[in-house]
């Protein structure tokens, strides 16, 4: 990133980063604070980046987010997922257990849990999730999903190359077995897949310097929270407008502009 800044002939770098991109922005700002201009980090990772502990927090996110879908389903009885949030949750566990014991159409319990997790980031995805869940529960043909975009395999390989080199991952099978048992209890909705052993356990090389959390930047830093769902909220125009107005307010009142 600093080489890009230099090639562009800029004295300072301005940057917008989403999700994993927040980690890049945090590390760059920590390493080169004097070369950092306007840095916007949206949907931040934890202080350790996308490491084992960060990955296991997916389960916590599922526990906190699923109740929103469990309220949506009873309000839309055509899907037949349950008449109360409690019934929806119970039916979810029952279907996941059934698929664990006997996969259907190539989908097992872990794939079902991951599929639900990936579709509850935004309320707009709830209808498609409900249709998928209903079809799977009734043994019907599943709705066609979008095809994998070109370069998916390369993207996944690059993902592993980055996260396995950036952070330290458990290499002991016994450690992963212990973590899996713990996460089954902590996060019953998502399960323990993110605690399981990863390709990073056998990665041939590790980074010479592991990730360090972003240091405090004092009055130059501003935290803006938005009390709604979504990941990468600045990508949505309405939220972009909201954040812009918020940052302008902070500039006027905190910096005297």
From TrEMBL:
Gene3D superfamilies: alpha/beta hydrolase (3.40.50.1820). Residues 204-255 form the Peptidase S9 prolyl oligopeptidase catalytic domain. One of its GO terms (biological process) is proteolysis. It comes from the Bacteria. GO terms for molecular function: serine-type peptidase activity. Signal peptide: none annotated. InterPro entries: AB_hydrolase_fold, Peptidase_S9_cat. Pfam families: Peptidase_S9. This is Peptidase S9 prolyl oligopeptidase catalytic domain-containing protein. It comes from Amycolatopsis panacis.
